[in-house]
């Protein structure tokens, strides 16, 4: 989308319908748009293939609406993460968004559909891990990936995970979200040949330390091919999994 828009601008200069001076003025605002409270990066999609993502936590509804309008004006689809239900209602009164309360993600604009050849798996140890797992899954879907969900497959009942070995074996990348001691990532890492992205969640009792115990367990995994994102960072896991899934190669 971003590359097409810049190419169209250059074609207008070539055919004389736009002067070089006007094209220069347009390009000067392309790197970012200064809204005062935010500098909207309109070149993010050109550089990285994905438009800037709005982190909703800590921003007012009015600030989010302003950023959404700036991005939509430039033809970009918008992903908003960590948006609570009350703020989502306020944003929806001024901007066209689709909101998922479990993942706390809102989307504005049309999505491109599936653009990667394979699929990725999002596995959650327990039902309490679903908000983080869904943040990963919805992010990956918004970025053009087919996602298979395996939920409540933690190590307390390992047979629940083993019943889905075929699905795991065909995945290009697996995201494993778990709290408590975070063992799910190591178990999956020992079963698959693809990369595993471990997401420690803040779910657990006192000595869980808000997800620190799961984080340290995952960082110390003895399974090869396991990488770890920060506590509760489902978005980061979904984004990274999308990059891996779009790297090409024949479907498994």
From TrEMBL:
The UniProt entry, under Gene3D superfamilies, shows:
3.40.50.1970
Protein's name in the database: PurE domain-containing protein
| BP GO terms, sorted | 'de novo' IMP biosynthetic process
**Taxonomic lineage from the root:** Bacteria, Bacillati, Bacillota, Clostridia, Eubacteriales
For this protein, the record's PANTHER family field holds: PHOSPHORIBOSYLAMINOIMIDAZOLE CARBOXYLASE-RELATED, SLL1489 PROTEIN
Which GO MF term does the entry hold, naming one? Answer: hydrolase activity
The UniProt record lists the PurE domain at 118-250
Do you know which InterPro entries this protein is assigned to?
A: P2CMN_synthase_LarB, PurE_dom
Under the heading SUPFAM superfamilies, the entry gives: N5-CAIR mutase (phosphoribosylaminoimidazole carboxylase, PurE)
Write down the SMART domains for this protein, in alphabetical order: AIRC (SM01001)
């Amino acid at each position: 989308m971003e590359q097409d828009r810049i190419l169209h601008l250059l074609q207008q200069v070539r055919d004389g319908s736009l002067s070089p001076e006007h094209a220069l003025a347009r390009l000067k605002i392309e790197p970012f748009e200064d809204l005062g409270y935010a500098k909207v990066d309109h070149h993010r999609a050109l550089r990285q293939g994905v438009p800037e993502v709005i982190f909703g936590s800590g921003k007012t509804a009015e600030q989010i609406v302003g950023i959404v309008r700036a991005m939509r004006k430039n033809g970009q689809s918008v992903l908003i993460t960590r948006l609570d239900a009350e703020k989502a209602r306020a944003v929806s009164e001024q901007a066209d968004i689709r909101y998922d309360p479990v993942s706390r993600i809102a989307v504005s604009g049309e999505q491109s559909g599936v653009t990667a050849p394979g699929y990725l798996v999002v596995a959650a140890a327990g039902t309490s891990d679903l908000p983080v797992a869904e943040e990963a899954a919805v992010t990956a879907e918004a970025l053009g990936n087919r996602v298979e969900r395996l939920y409540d497959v933690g190590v307390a009942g390992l047979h629940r995970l083993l019943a889905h070995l075929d699905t795991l074996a065909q995945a290009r990348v697996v995201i494993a979200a778990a709290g408590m001691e975070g063992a799910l990532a190591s178990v999956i890492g020992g079963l698959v040949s693809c990369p595993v992205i471990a997401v420690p969640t803040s779910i657990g009792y006192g000595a869980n330390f808000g997800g620190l115990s799961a984080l340290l367990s995952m960082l110390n995994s003895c399974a090869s091919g396991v990488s770890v994102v920060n506590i509760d960072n489902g978005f980061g896991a979904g984004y990274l999994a999308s990059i891996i899934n779009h790297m090409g190669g024949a479907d498994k």
